[in-house]
TrEMBL record:
Keyword DNA repair: no
Membrane-spanning residues: 33-51, 71-88, 94-120
Source organism superkingdom: Eukaryota
InterPro entries in the cross-refs: Vps55/LEPROT (IPR007262)
Protein's name in the database: Leptin receptor gene-related protein
Family: Belongs to the OB-RGRP/VPS55 family.
Keywords tagged on the record: Endosome, Golgi apparatus, Membrane, Transmembrane, Transmembrane helix
Source organism: Nesospiza acunhae
Main location: membrane
Its membrane topology: Multi-pass membrane protein
Pfam families: Vps55
GO biological process: late endosome to vacuole transport via multivesicular body sorting pathway; negative regulation of growth hormone receptor signaling pathway
Protein localization: Endosome membrane; Golgi apparatus membrane
Gene: Leprot
């Protein structure tokens, strides 16, 4: 029951984040679809974690080089997702209001991804691997 509630909450927050992203594109005042390129960052964000989990050893060490490298790449992906709309607004490809909506959507989506891994990434009997 608790995992189902967590899944519903995560899906609701993901929908809110994607709504912010779609509003930054679809509102008539903004009218361009360049902000949709941040979807690429949403899809590639968890990939370093999956690779590190598969390649890294299963020891319970506090730190491993593979895991730290995955954190580094994930941080670069997240920072790039926040930087892209700022650069697009700076060169006037999108308006600053659209940039603000994309940044709000980024915050919600990346917190949703983090929440997913915190809730379902523990490796206990109910984990993300069964989804």
């Amino acid at each position: 029951p608790c995992a189902v509630a967590a899944l519903v909450a995560l899906s609701f927050s993901g929908a809110i984040g994607l709504t912010f992203l779609m509003l930054s594109c679809a509102l008539e005042y903004y009218g361009v679809y360049w902000p949709l390129f941040v979807l690429i960052f949403y899809f590639i964000c968890p990939i370093p974690h999956f690779i590190a989990k598969r390649v890294g050893d299963d020891s319970d060490a506090a730190s491993s080089a593979c895991r730290e490298l995955a954190y580094f790449f994930t941080t670069g992906i997240v920072v790039s997702a926040f930087g892209l709309p700022i650069i697009l607004a700076r060169v006037e490809a999108i308006k600053w209001g659209a940039c603000g909506l994309v940044l709000a959507g980024n915050a919600v989506i990346f917190l949703t991804i983090l929440g997913f891994f915190l809730v379902f990434g523990r490796g206990d009997d109910f984990s993300w691997e069964q989804w």
